[in-house]
Design brief:
Blueprint (H helix, E strand, L loop, with lengths): L3 H5 L9 H8 L3 H9 L1 E5 L2 E5 L15 H16 L4 H15 L8 H19 L3 H15 L2 E3 L5 E4 L14 E2 L10 E2 L6 H9 L4 H8 L3 H17 L1
Antiparallel strand pairs: 1-2, 3-4, 5-6
Helix pairs in contact: 4-7, 5-6, 6-7, 9-10
């Protein structure tokens, strides 16, 4: 059960509609909904149900918290790149959560240190996965976890969104911080929403004008537009 401190933390407040969260993370909205609500699937022994992978802060509110956003960021590689079944992922996450005795282990630095090994060990046992497969997943997970900034208590506090997993070393130009601009993606160290720049570009302003007006480099503006182009393909 969440502590009083957790319940009051802005990171655990329902903030993001599913459509927005899916866009920010480049995850299909239908996929994200299945992680939030679980889903039924057929088996040779009849229909089975997979429990949700992400627990919302308020069962009566369909919006995600920042902590949920971080969880989805990490789950992305597990489900999309390695196609691990929902029920197996849920079982492995329950194992990690039980070991840590803490909620939302994917959004805690312990997962990056000890928890990842526990998770991969559990998945390997459930699926009889090869060591090679586990190492491949570990490598990609580590890239995603490096896009998270942790506070002194080991909780995720900022997320540097990554659209393409192949570009794990992409510069940290965009950030999602629940304390800035209502948690929308902004340019690092400025607080300027990505949407503001995109809207002006759509209105006909070119890269040079935008860079000069905001005092940004061309690289920063190009990264914003690259982010928007990639997200529009997943909408």
């Amino acid at each position: 059960m969440a502590s009083t401190h957790d319940s009051l933390d802005i990171r655990n407040v329902a903030t993001y509609p599913v459509a927005d969260a899916a866009r920010y993370l480049a995850i299909p909205a239908g996929t994200l909904r299945s992680w939030l609500h679980g889903r039924s699937y057929p088996t040779t022994n009849g229909t089975r149900y997979s429990e949700p992978l992400i627990l919302l802060p308020d069962i009566n509110n369909p919006q995600l918290s920042f902590t949920n956003l971080v969880e989805a960021h990490v789950l992305r590689v597990i489900r999309q790149n390695h196609q691990i079944r929902l029920d197996k992922v849920r079982t492995a996450l329950d194992y990690v959560e039980q070991k840590f005795r803490l909620p939302h282990p994917l959004a805690r630095i312990q997962f990056q240190t000890d928890g990842m090994d526990l998770f991969l060990e559990s998945v390997g046992q459930l699926l009889n996965a090869s060591r090679h497969g586990q190492l491949a997943m570990q490598k990609t997970l580590r890239h995603l976890l490096e896009r998270i900034e942790w506070d002194q208590e080991g909780l995720a506090q900022r997320l540097f969104p990554l659209v393409q997993l192949q570009r794990a070393d992409a510069p940290r130009i965009l950030v999602i911080d629940p304390r800035i601009s209502f948690g929308r993606p902004v340019i690092v160290n400025t607080g300027i929403p990505v949407e503001a720049i995109i809207d002006r570009f759509r209105a006909g302003e070119d890269l040079k004008e935008l860079a000069e007006d905001y005092g940004f480099s061309h690289r920063q503006i190009e990264e914003v537009l690259r982010y928007e182009i990639a997200l529009s393909k997943t909408a």
